[in-house]
Protein 1
Amino acid sequence: MAVPLSSMPELRKLLEPFLGGEENRANVVMVRLADNALRRLDGLIEAGLFGSRSEAAAFLVGAGIRAQKDLLERIAAQTAEIGRMRKALRQTALDTLRRSATPAERRRK
């Protein structure tokens, strides 16, 4: 019978980096899994490493994030750059529209 991860302090300490460390796992994510993935998840529970599919899935997601750290950091940097570019584009459009407004339109603002 599987036991909750919280009842195994040594194992919890080893797995914490994959589970989000001290962060509270309060966010719920619905996910559909293939049969093979579900069997793997259940295998972790059957082995006694986790007490629930939620704990096992959180571990696997955390492990995937750690394994793809470089990729995710590049994506974050590029996403931030895209955000800066969008902001600059909006400002350019706003400035252009302000300059093209007629004097009467400018007075109404």
Protein 2
Amino acid sequence: MSDQAKFNSGCVMPHRLATHNALPAGSAFLNFRHLVDGMLTPYMIMDRSLTIIYANQAYLDAVERKLPDLIGKNVFHAFPDTDDRTAPIRETFIRTLNGETTQVERTYYHFRHADGTVSTKCWQCIQTPYYGVDGEVAYIVQHAEDITEADKLRQRNEVIQQELDHRVKNIFSVIQAVAMLSGTQAETIEEFRNEFASRLAAMGRTHDQLRDHNWEGLWLHSILKDGLDQFCGRDSERVTICGPDVRLSPRGAQHASLLVHEMATNAAKYGCFSVPGGKLRIETAHGDDAHSVKVCWKESGLSGVTSPTNQGFGSQLFNFMPNLTVDRVFEDDGLRLNLTAKLLHPMEPSPDLTFPRP
């Protein structure tokens, strides 16, 4: 009689499982098939030749197979894969046949679905040896679990953790640089505290926006508008922003927000925002290649503007950013800044936006 026939007839386990002596007499035996058939976790049984002789419904659902598709087939024929993938699994099964309970953690294999498509699955399994009446291992009872989605989540969390670590280190380096530059410019502790706090607040607003946009970066026009709103109110007629927009990386967005905050602060102290009729026009343009953007910051409404004799925080901040080149021209009616920034990614196509339209 074959193993499968014995299994079906109940002559050989796995059919009945002897219980502990302390249990009531009426439960001296448990019906193994009835017990495992109804379990929600996948179970499969192989004989010593690694031929599948049983699989419960949960297992069949997980592998998208019918019972006749598996019964009587060698496990490596039922689920073919490359030799380098199957070799360690085969060694694990041999150890189980030698009496060892084994575990396979996070095993990846190519899975052919019922519709013919192929995907990579991740399973973890426990193999338990089952002994026959002769004291030798007769079967391998495998408890399997499909952890594909959980493994994808684990990998995604690892990537997020690495990215978060990188961003936190970058933010710390920027804060350290801002603190050092602020300290060299401030004449009093009070002045340092106020200016440093305002710069951190600008970074915090950008961080909130990046979080709200899933850290996919921010549009330059949005950064300009948000930074300037802090000084002259939302949608002020004193400010015009025009030209093609561009999405900046998270790091680029943080740097840009610091620059906008500093330039707007200087405009409020000494430039166009320090006089009632002062205005600011910002024009963005494509650079010489797809990896660069140009920005022209032009203040007007002043008179008799001259170049300062000392280097302020903004000038030092420009030097802190190696991917940025700046040309400053102190025209009679206000400052003109021509900036060119190198981008991590090519400029994305976007319509010309104006806030407000000139």
Protein 3
Amino acid sequence: MFDRKGQTRIIEAFLAIAVVFSALIISTVTFPSPPNLTKQKSLASLGTQTLIELDINGTLGKLIAQENWTAIKRSLDVLLPIGVSFNLTIFDENLSQINSHVIQNTNLLGRETVSVQYICASQSQNIQFFILRMQLAWTR
């Protein structure tokens, strides 16, 4: 009659192959790739340069002193390239948050973000210092 040992070995080999392929698929899906430090550094540099450019001639300090959060958001939308998400929080010298409205273009939850800090001052008779903390992330 038929040799049952040969059939058992074939089924055993198929099960072993299925286990190996399952392990490969699970390992590639569950383990995240390491962060790309080059992209993070370029994003941090881009954020710093954007804040510096916005602060030319004290423009940023004036907008903060006037509490014109929409103008700050619009300026950042224009200066930052498409595909970059941001969230900006502004603090006074006592580290109390002063922006009453959220200054962001999209939600950064679940994204790999870079944080940039920048200090600026208002150029009025009553000098005020502001600490800006901006989180940036690539959307693509």
Protein 4
Amino acid sequence: MTTPIVIAEDDADIAAVMVEAIGADGSIEPIVVSNGALVIDAVMNVGARLLILDVQMPGATGIDVYDVVRDHPAFRDIPVLFVTANPELALDTLPGVAPREVLAKPFDLDDLVGRVRSLLAGALAV
């Protein structure tokens, strides 16, 4: 059985690399959404266990999506990993509410996969 996660990334090349790295062993099923306005629907439809957000996206920013997720009782405990070219913006504008992490672009694929696995392990242990 695979663990579904939602990746909100509007750059198709970056999204493809992320999907390949994260889904390589077959235990995680990454679903890509390229528009921030569609993220919540995707989270609901697939039962996502983790959300990876780009901060700057069309439709709704990653920060806007994060606010909606944190305000929704069914989603507030889903871990969030921001993968962004502007990590300072993500860190400065986000409240210190766990679980969330920020990873700067460009990123190391091993670091990305390690953080995803760590966040999922924490979420699945709850």
